[in-house]
Amino acid sequence: MATELTWPGHGSWSIKVDEHHVLLDPFFDDSPTAPFMANDVDCDYILVSHGHFDHVADVASIANRTGATVVAIFEIAEWFSKNHGVKETLGMNLGGGVNLPFGRVKMTPAHHSLQLPDGSYGGNPAGFLLTLEVGNIYFARDTALFSDMKLIGAAGIDLAILPIGDHFTMGAG
User: What is the DSSP letter of 28?
Assistant: First the structure.
């Protein structure tokens, strides 16, 4: 399987696995660095790590336009369905996993604050472990360093994408 990862800026990722296109935390229209707008991207799945504006801003518009399935913590999936008319959602919880056409998605813990843009409760923040034919990719997302990362790593990670903001997330050192 051909796999391509693209970082369009901020916390967003584009993951292409053969004919499947996955977006992670799309933030394009209000991002000062995104190379394209939300209307310029198509996808089949959108993974959402938590409910902060800079991780959910473009989820509904992309999902409603493309018919993409939004995969998120249960409370966020329900929020998109009820408040934004997203038809295809898949609510999960930490530690859960699901087999999708492009590979397996496991929701991992992340230590971060969480509140949706309208002030609603958004469940727990999450990271994702993707098991793809080419290997395992861990997206830690917005998080502090925590010791259970060792357990996540025991799955045999081929690529780990970690935050290094050092103000709202863990730092590089």
Answer: -
Q: Which of 67, 92, 86, 70 is nearest to 23 (CA)?
A: 70
pLDDT of the residue at 173: 67
pLDDT band at residue 1 using 50, 70 and 90 as cut-offs: low
Q: What is the CATH number of domain 3-161?
A: 3.60.15.10
Token pair, residue 108, equals 């991992």
Query: Mean pLDDT score of the chain, rounded to an integer?
Result: 92
Query: What angle in degrees, to the nearest 10, is found between the helix axes of 59-66 and 74-84?
Result: 70
Can you give the residue ranges of every domain in the chain?
Answer: 3-161
State residue 111 phi and psi, 5-degree precision: -105, 105
Please return the burial class of 151, using the count of CB atoms within 10 Å of its CB with bins 0-12, 13-18 and 19+: exposed
The dihedral built from the CA positions of residue 90, 109, 61 and 115, taken in this order, carries a sign that is: positive
Residue 91: helix, strand or coil by DSSP? strand
Q: Scan for tokens 């045999």, then name that residue.
A: 156
Phi, psi dihedrals of residue 162, rounded to the nearest 5°: -115, 150
3 state SS of 49: coil
Provide the 8-state DSSP code for 102: T
Q: Which residues pair with 138 in a beta bridge?
A: 129, 160
DSSP 38: G
